[in-house]
Design brief:
It is built from 14 helices and eight strands. It has 360 residues and is of the alpha/beta class. The chain folds into two domains: 252 residues, Aldolase class I (TIM Barrel), CATH 3.20.20.70; 92 residues, Up-down Bundle (Chorismate Mutase Domain, subunit A). The chain has an eight-stranded parallel β-barrel with strand order 1-2-3-4-5-6-7-8, surrounded by five helices. The chain is elongated and about 75 Å long. The structure holds prephenic acid. This is chorismate mutase.
Length: 360
């Protein structure tokens, strides 16, 4: 699959003056609930009304969605409000029902994207549809698996595609429900700049208080849209209560978000930008040359260790370096998270160098 300008045609055709917004409850619970939320979203920036009707839940016994019955409610949303409707599909039967009921956009969840068999089944069922299909990232941070899933759908003739970034699970406890791993989404954009990329801040944060900030980061990174779970009574939602916002909160979020443009032609801005970029180029060059010097020293240590038959990994020394660098980093306004990531990568490279020498 290659990047093609036409991949974003369906989004461009909407001619929006704001990011695409997909809003609605995590789950369709009752007909009244669905219609109430839809009416409250009708005159907002929301372009598509979302509601999950088949819910993949972590444990059996949790609310697993109302099933096909919910499609009737979604159809009513379209009739009564004129909003386009969308839902998640997780197998061929779901796709068939969604298409028969004229759902306007379908998305595939993170727990489906992980499985090439399920993705192929869904792709076959979608064959030839002109409805947009959005593919969420797989639960694990694996860009190839995400792209592979998209490719399966694209190859089955679905030309209106998009990606949803919903973050990645981790054993680590963090402030996020699913860690964003922005770097992976940036890589995605580099490879496929024309596949519309939509952020799902609800699943990334798991917490409505953090939705605004994460959404702003996405807009700062050129995302095309947001999928935000919205419920008239979030506290009492049947699923994911902590991460849903009210329709009025959604309106406020959309008002407060700053929409960035890709560039600006003004000369003064461009001069200042070029100047700072030239400074960055020099610093980057210095960083590489310093890292090269560091590795030469590491190679020397490797040779010494080889002579004396000493192990490459020296945990005590390594921990001392990490501790010192975190403190120094702080003095220079560098976050602990960044210092740890960077030095772990440097340490690994140093180990790789020494391994070559010691075993060479
Ligand atoms: O100090 C050492 O013994 C090294 O090999 C250098 C180094 C490093 O790159 O800083 C690499 C591996 C060890 O685990 C500790 C530190």
């Amino acid at each position: 699959m290659e990047n093609k300008k036409e991949m974003r045609n369906w989004l461009d055709a909407l001619n929006l003056d704001h990011p695409l917004v997909i809003a609605g409850p995590c789950s369709a619970e009752t007909e009244e609930q669905v219609l109430k939320i839809a009416h409250e979203l009708k005159d907002t920036d929301a372009n598509y009304f979302r509601a999950g009707i088949w819910k993949p839940r972590t444990r059996p016994g949790m609310f697993e969605g109302v099933g096909a019955l919910g499609l009737n409610w979604l159809k009513k949303v379209k009739e009564e409000t004129g909003m386009k409707i969308c839902t998640e599909v997780a197998n061929a039967a779901h796709v068939k029902l969604a298409l028969e009921n004229d759902v306007d956009l379908l998305w595939i969840g993170a727990r489906s994207t992980v499985s090439p068999f399920i993705m192929q089944e869904i792709a076959d069922a979608l064959k030839g549809t002109d409805k947009p299909v959005l593919i969420k990232n797989p639960v694990n941070p694996d860009l190839s698996l995400w792209l592979g899933g998209i490719e399966r759908i694209y190859k089955s003739g679905v030309k209106n595609i998009g990606a949803i970034h919903r973050g990645f699970s981790s054993y680590q406890k963090t402030k996020y429900r699913n860690i964003p791993e922005w770097q992976l989404a940036i890589e995605f954009q580099n490879k496929f700049p024309d596949i519309p990329l939509i952020l799902d801040p609800s699943h990334i944060t798991g917490n409505r208080e953090m939705i605004f900030d994460v959404s702003q980061t996405a807009l700062d990174l050129n995302y095309d849209g947001l999928m935000i779970e919205t419920h008239h009574d979030p506290e009492n939602a049947w699923s994911d209560a902590a991460q849903q916002v009210t329709p009025s909160k959604l309106i406020q979020i959309m008002k407060d978000l700053k929409i960035r443009k890709e560039t600006d032609a003004e000369a003064e801005y461009n001069n200042a930008l070029n100047n700072l970029r030239a400074q960055i180029d020099i610093v980057d060059h210095d960083i590489i040359s310093l890292l090269g010097k560091r590795m030469i020293a590491a190679d020397g240590i490797g040779a010494l260790k080889k002579k004396k038959n000493v192990a490459v990994l020296q945990s005590k020394r390594w921990n001392e370096i990490l501790g010192k660098m975190v403190l120094e980093g702080e003095e220079h306004g560098l976050s602990e998270e960044f210092i740890l990531r960077m030095f772990k990568a440097i340490h690994q490279e140093s180990i790789n160098h020494q391994e070559k020498i010691i075993n060479g």
